[in-house]
């Protein structure tokens, strides 16, 4: 695959329940959605069969990890399912219980080799954002725009080392205040009410 950015392609790393994937598809983008929770992957395949059949959506059922092609423990938090993680302490933070399952792994270079370089990459993979940023730095291929859940300055420093020189810090608790611009800056206009997920 070439390192050229594909302007119609978005990566949704940490698809969760597919809210972001649905929004990106509605805007007219192709989407690669990575998710380790098998139930969420099955739900996405059931919800978006036409997009998958047409090649607009690829659901990658795996955890982003330090190396690809492995089988690792993944921890499902059933009470706060957006906290499920390949890192047990992350999934069990706040005193929550988590169920251990086994999942396959992929790396960012695996995804870039398979699908190409996206225009925009959203990474929200509960505890692995710094590992993602490190893989991006080592790989050399660069999406035009990257979004991460920045739980430390280290992740932002890695993105700076990648060459990204502008940052916008957003409090996701205030997403409900955001209104999609009309006309849109990219893709088609989609009326959406955002929330914390």
What does this entry look like structurally?
By secondary structure, this protein is an alpha/beta fold. The protein has a single domain, classed as Vaccinia Virus protein VP39 (Rossmann fold). The chain is 28% helix and 24% strand. It contains 7 helices and 8 strands. The strands form 2 sheets. It has a 5-stranded parallel sheet, with helices on both faces. Helix 6 packs parallel to helix 7. The protein is globular and about 45 Å long.
Q: Can you give me a brief rundown of this structure?
A:
Helices cover 28% and strands 24% of the residues. By secondary structure, it is an alpha/beta fold.
- What helical percentage do the residues reach? 25-40%
CATH architect. name: 3-Layer(aba) Sandwich
Strand content: 15-25%
- Cα-atom Rg, whole angstroms? 16 Å
Helix-strand pattern: EHEHHEEEHEHEHEH
What is the number of strand segments? 8
User: What is the SS-derived class?
Assistant: alpha/beta
* Number of helical elements: 7
Q: How do the strands and helices of this protein lay out in sequence?
A:
Elements: E1 5-13, H1 19-26, E2 30-35, H2 38-47, H3 49-53, E3 57-61, E4 63-64, E5 71-76, H4 88-91, E6 99-106, H5 108-115, E7 117-123, H6 129-139, E8 145-148, H7 153-161
Parallel strand pairs: 1-2, 1-7, 2-3, 4-6, 7-8
Antiparallel strand pairs: 5-6
Helix pairs in contact: 6-7
What labels describe this entry?
alpha/beta, 7 helices, three-stranded mixed sheet, 197 residues, five-stranded parallel sheet, Rossmann fold
